[in-house]
Amino acid sequence: MEIINKRRSVREYAKKTVEKEKIELILKAAMQAPSACNQQPTRFLVIEDKEMLNKISETFKSMRFSKDASFVILYLVTKVDLIAPMMAPQDASASVENSLLKATELGIGSCWCGVYPREDRMNDAKILFNIPDNLYPFAIVTFGYPLKSDALKFVDRYDTKKVFFEKFE
Q1: Which residues of 48-76 are buried (b: 16+ CB within 10 A; e: fewer)?
Q2: d(CA 83, CA 129)
Q3: Over its length of 169 residues, how does the chain's per-residue pLDDT go in tens digits?
Q4: CB 59 within 8 A of CB 121
Q5: pLDDT value for 1
């Protein structure tokens, strides 16, 4: 529960490269996510190249901070051989969340930037990353060591007004 409580969207990164071993641990966590019928539809494109990080920042206005990240992962969903295709976006969401939690555990900040289902962002991502037709872009997540030491602190968001037992009142 501690990791869940510490996870925050981090948009300011220190100029420190995340180690390859930690990137692999984040990817392993992503691949452990549950998925409908165990279809595992999520694919991953890891981008560390600074020129490409700058292009992401220029292409997506809401992702300007990606230029300062150590790396990003583009989460993609395959369109082929799916047992439960309508569940694939939920599967990809679980994969992204596992990544965010693992990054937090490693002291790495992250920010989930939505792409799917916005057609404009999906099309921009297809062009920028030269995505083949058998995949569609789902999300871009930035990763890096937080610039501020308190970036991964607990903020209590529990709200009893949003919880109902047995019936709505």
Answers
A1: eeeebbebbbebbeebebbbbbbbbbbbb
A2: 26
A3: 889 999 999 999 999 999 999 999 999 999 999 999 999 999 999 999 999 999 999 999 999 999 999 999 999 999 999 999 999 999 999 999 999 999 999 999 999 999 999 999 999 999 999 999 999 999 999 999 999 989 999 999 999 999 999 999 8
A4: no
A5: 81
Strand, helix or coil at 64? Answer: helix
| 103, 43 Cβ separation under 8 angstroms | no
Q: Which helix (H) or strand (E) holds 140?
A: strand 135-144
Query: Going by C-beta distance under 8 Å and a sequence separation of 6 or more, which residues neighbour residue 23?
Result: 46, 71, 143
The CATH-assigned architecture of domain 2-162 is 3-Layer(aba) Sandwich (3.40)
SS3 label, residue 166: coil
Cβ atoms of residues 34 and 96 within 8 Å? no
Each domain of the chain, given as residue ranges in start order, spans 2-162
Paired strand residues for 94: none
H helix runs in 32-165, sequence order: 50-59, 88-105, 119-129
CA distance 35 to 86: 11
